[in-house]
Amino acid sequence: MPEIISPYDEFKKFLEEYSNDNWFEFGYGLIVVFGDKKVNIRQYHNDGFWLSSWVDKEEFFERINQFPVRESLKINEEENNNE
């Protein structure tokens, strides 16, 4: 019998095999992929469906860093580009 793979696992496998973009798995079905100019935010649900949004990368960093968090937890685009 063929292996049944979830859309979540299938997307992660695709990223690992074919993508050069940085991506992070945040748990609860949330995967964020950082492209050159866009960020893809995907939320997978246990029923097999998912929501996917594309946002401008600069605007993403601008907005996410507006939240009151410790300085050490802020996302820094330059640090990500240096990895």
Note the main attributes of this structure.
about 80 residues; alpha+beta; four-stranded antiparallel beta sheet; 3 helices; 4 strands
Structure description:
The protein has about 80 residues and is α+β, with helices and mostly antiparallel strands. The protein has one domain (about 5-80). Helices cover about 30% and strands about 30% of the residues. The chain has helices at about 5-20, 55-65, 75-80, and strands at about 20-25, 30-35, 40-45, 50-55. A four-stranded antiparallel beta sheet has the order 1-2-3-4. Strand 2 (about 30-35) and strand 3 (about 40-45) form a beta hairpin. The longest helix has 12 residues, at about 5-20. The radius of gyration is 15 Å and the shape is elongated. The relative contact order is 0.13.
Oligomer: single chain
SS-derived structural category: alpha+beta
Spans of at least 5 consecutive residues with low confidence:
none
Q: For the CA atoms, what is the radius of gyration?
A: 15 Å
Distance between the termini: 41 Å
List the topology elements:
Blueprint lengths: L6 H12 L3 E6 L2 E5 L3 E7 L5 E7 H8 L12 H6 L1
Give a quick summary of the entry.
The chain is α+β, with helices and mostly antiparallel strands and 83 residues long. The protein has helices at 7-18, 57-64, 77-82; strands at 22-27, 30-34, 38-44, 50-56.
